[in-house]
Amino acid sequence: MPFRRSKGLVKWIFENQHKMQSVRRCSSLARYKEMEDSAASEHDVSGPKTRPEITPEISFKHDDLQVRLAAPYQLQTKPDAVELGFGKYFTDHMLKIHYSKHLGGWQKPEITPFENLSLHPAAKALHYAIQLFEGMKAYRGVDDKIRLFRPELNMERMNLAAQRSGLPMFDGQELIRCITRLIQIDQEWVPHSETSTLYVRPTLIGTEPTFGIMEPESALLFVILSPVSAYYQTRGDGAVSIFADPAVVRAFPGGVGNRKVGSNYGPTIEATARAAKLGHQQVLWLFGPDRELTEVGAMNIFMVYINDQGERQLSTPPLNGLILPGVTRRSILELASQWEDLVVKEEVITMDRLEDLNDRGRLLELFGAGTAVVVTPIANVGYLHRNIRVPTTSQPRPVYRRLRDTLLAIQYGHVDHPYAKVIA
Q: GO terms for biological process (predicted)?
C-alpha cells in the first residue's frame, strides 16, 4: 500500500511493532558501525584500517556553559513560513566555544546574542580551508515537542572531519547538550509546521593567524540556527533533474570526499551553475573510467530496480572513501533492510548499468537523500547529450515516498522511535 504521513501510516507502524522491534535489534548502532567499517576497509585502499579514537580525554563541558541573552533591541523579526527559503534567516542566539593550545585547550562554552565573528585576516580558515561543518535539524512534532534526529552520528562525523583537518576534537555528547540548550532558548524559532524546520549548523574553523600550513593552535567552534523550508525549487511532483558530467569529479581516492569539509563544496559551484543553464537542479558526480555514481549534489544517491531474480532492489554506492557517510543514508539502509518486499544492497553503480536497466524497463526509481532534502525523487538524468527519463514518480508504490514518509513520521513525532531525541 502507498505510504502517507497520516493516520494510515501511524496505524501501519502500530500494527507492525513486532517488525520495528527487530529493526532495533538487527540494525543497532554497533552492528551497523561494523558493517560501515567493513565496507570502508574493503574499498578504501588508503589510510588506516581501524576506526580512529574520536573522543578526546579533554573537552569542553556543558556544565561550564555560560549564557548571555539578547536584549530586546537585538531580537530578530521572525519571517513568515512562506518566506523562509533555505538559510536566509537566523535566530537570536548562537553558541561559541574557543580553543587555544596556549590556554590549555577548550575554553568554556558560551551562548551569546547572534553576532558577527571577528577574525584576523591571516586566520588559517580563510587561506587553507581549515574548517568543517555539520548539518542537523530540529523538528517541532505533532505534540509540540522539539526533536533532533540521531545527533550522535553528526558528532561522530564532525570529530572524524576535525581529526583529518588537524582541528581539535571534543566530546560529542557535551556538544549535543550545549546545542540542546541553544535550541531551548530559541525554541520559538522552530517552525510550527511539518514543511519547515530549524536547521542547525555546527562549524569548526582554524583561527590561528599564521601562514604556516600546519594544524592551528587556536580554533573556534560555533553553532548557528536558521529556520528553513524547501531546499530545491522542484517540479509539481517534487522531482528534480540532474546532470551527469564525466568531465568533473567531486572527490578522489585518499581525499576528503567522506568528510564534511568546506573544500568539498566550493569547487562544485561552477559545475552546478553549468547544469542549471541546461535546465537541471543538480550535478550527478561520477568517478573513474567506468563512470561510477558517487553523490548527487550534496546528497547520497539511491536506485530502485528489478534485479536478476525479479525482486525490487534498493541500492546505493558503498562507502569507499569518495562518499559522505550520510545520517539519512544510514537510516534509510537500516529501515529499508527490514522491509520484506525489498532487497537492500550497497553496490557500485555505473552509468552503463543505469542506462542498461532503464533501456530494459527495469529501472524504477532514482532519488537523493540528505538532511536538507530528506528524500528527493529524480525524474531525469542528462548524460552525453541524452536525457534519461526515470519513472520515479509514476510508480504505484514508490520506495522513495515510503522512506520519506517513514522518516518524517519519526522526525515529527507521529511515532516514537529511538532515532528521535526529544529536547524540549
A: L-leucine biosynthetic process; L-valine biosynthetic process
Instruction: Judge whether residue 44 has pLDDT over 50.
Output: no
Q: What is the pTM of this model?
A: 0.86
State yes or no: pLDDT of 259 exceeds 60: yes
Statement to judge: residues 332 and 392 lie in one domain: yes
Q: What is the pLDDT of residues 163-211, one digit of tens each?
A: 999 999 999 999 999 999 999 999 999 999 898 999 999 999 999 999 9
Contact 120, 142 (CB under 8 A): no
pLDDT at position 9, please? 58
Question: In terms of residue numbers, what domain contains 383?
Answer: 240-413
Residue 365 corresponds to which cell in the numbers above?
526509481
- Residue 301, burial from CB neighbour count under 10 angstroms (0-12, 13-18, 19+): buried
Question: 272: which 3 cell numbers?
Answer: 552546478
3-state secondary structure of 103: helix
pLDDT at 5 (0 to 100): 52
Terminal C-alpha separation, the chain:
34
The number of distinct structural domains making up the chain is 2
229, 248, 274 — which closes off a domain?
A: 229
CA 263 vs. chain centroid, Å, equals 16
Alpha carbons 166 and 185: distance in angstroms, whole number: 32
In degrees rounded to 5, what are phi and psi of residue 228? Answer: -135, 160
| CATH code of the domain in which 340 resides | 3.20.10.10
Does some domain include residue 21?
no
